[in-house]
Amino acid sequence: MDALKGSLKIISVLTMTVSLFVFNGQIFAASTLSLASPARDFTCLLAPKIQAPPRLSTSTSRNAQRLRSICAAGLVPQPVGGQSPDPQQGSVLCRCGKTQPVGGKTQPVGGQSSGPQQSTVLVHKVNSLQVSNGFHYVDATQNTTSIGASGSYTQDKPYVLRQDDHSLAEMAVLSPYSDSNGNPVKQQQIIEIGWTVESATVAKDTNTHLFVFHWINRSLACSTSCGATCYNACGYVQYSSTIYPGMTVAVTQVPQKYAIMHYEGNWWLWYQDQWIGYFPDSLWSSKGITFNKASVVQWFGEVAGGLHTQMGNGIFGEQSVSASITDMHLIDTSLKESNASVTADGMGMTDPKCYNYGNLTGFSFNYGGPGC
Questions:
Q1: 3-state SS of 290-306?
Q2: Can you give the C-alpha Rg of the chain in angstroms?
Q3: What is the C-alpha separation between 166 and 284, in angstroms, rounded?
């Protein structure tokens, strides 16, 4: 297929029933069947005529990720994915009910959540430390008023059990948990970027892949869609000619920089040493939503499935040789990055016997574990 058309491959979607687990006052989504695989294919399209934001500072080494020209000159590799958040509509790559530590607690001004939360359909009380066959996290959360955030991640290839879904590390920016009166909001807006490894049952391979994702009106009282969209598409606009969501990334202990920032009407996404693409404000404004700043930022590791899948590099976060998230920064309106200040109160662990954290500095921590 010529460069103008690129490659287009359809990946099937698995229908699922989504359940809601409540643990320690926090909400987690889980599905009874595997989620669909992220898009790993692209089509070459004309590069968007838009000015990217100024470059961020970075110490990322390109030796960790060999860049190559993907499309012909003037074209960019636009990821191909599904457009509908509802698996009953038969779309490609639906990620309905996908996990995301997005919180349901009312948080005091300047306070921090104690861990990840999520929503979906059926509610089950979980009083133990384990949310079996659900979603499992080690996360850092900070309330903020900023236009974005960044973090540098080691990139690993954790073992994912065949019957599980994935193991990933990401950062996310979110709209507020609560309104001006301190009441929990009914809907939230979210943008994510990170790396993921999926099981051989779910994906075409078990390599480490870059991904992006977003939510529109994520709701605690949701239907099958829950405000979720799809991996690497559903309005995402590719900008970089060399790096695109869905591509395989290097396994490396050299931290790689990820960032999300709102700039001139778009939510831009950064990987390594460049802006790779963006989600336009119109995805939200077309629904009457204003989402142009980060009120909450989260940096975390996640396992979807049972507790026998590794998180990070499979080593407990309390050990110094485990996976790490460093240079956790908030970005202000002057485009200046400053250190985050996450405290122990802002750290969450759903399953500390299986996955934990250590070496917390406020703007870095180690995380992970072998499972149980």
A1: CCCCEEEEEEEEEEEEC
A2: 19
A3: 28
Would you kindly state where each structural domain of the chain is located, as residue ranges? Answer: 18-50+69-368
Confidence (pLDDT) at 166: 95
DSSP states of 184-202 as a string? BPSEEEEEEEEEEEE-TTT
pLDDT digits (tens, 9 = 90+) for 26-78: 333 222 223 334 434 899 999 999 999 999 987 765 544 456 778 999 999 99
Q: Which two tokens stand for residue 367?
A: 């995380």
CA distance 76 to 85: 25
The continuous run of DSSP H or E covering 282 comes out as helix 282-285
Question: Residue 265 pairs with which residues in a beta bridge?
Answer: none
Whether the per-residue pLDDT at 267 is higher than 70: the answer is yes
pTM of the model: 0.78
CA distances in angstroms from 20 to 41, 300, 312, 345, 364, listed in the order given: 32, 20, 25, 24, 30
Q: Which of 191-200, 214-223, 228-237 is the least confident region?
A: 214-223
Q: Are 45 and 136 in contact (CB under 8 A)?
A: no
Residues 6+ apart with CB under 8 A from 135: 21, 28, 29, 30, 99, 116, 118, 302, 303, 304, 350
Got the DSSP string for 73-94?
TTEEEEE-----S-GGGT-SSB
pLDDT of 263 higher than 90: yes
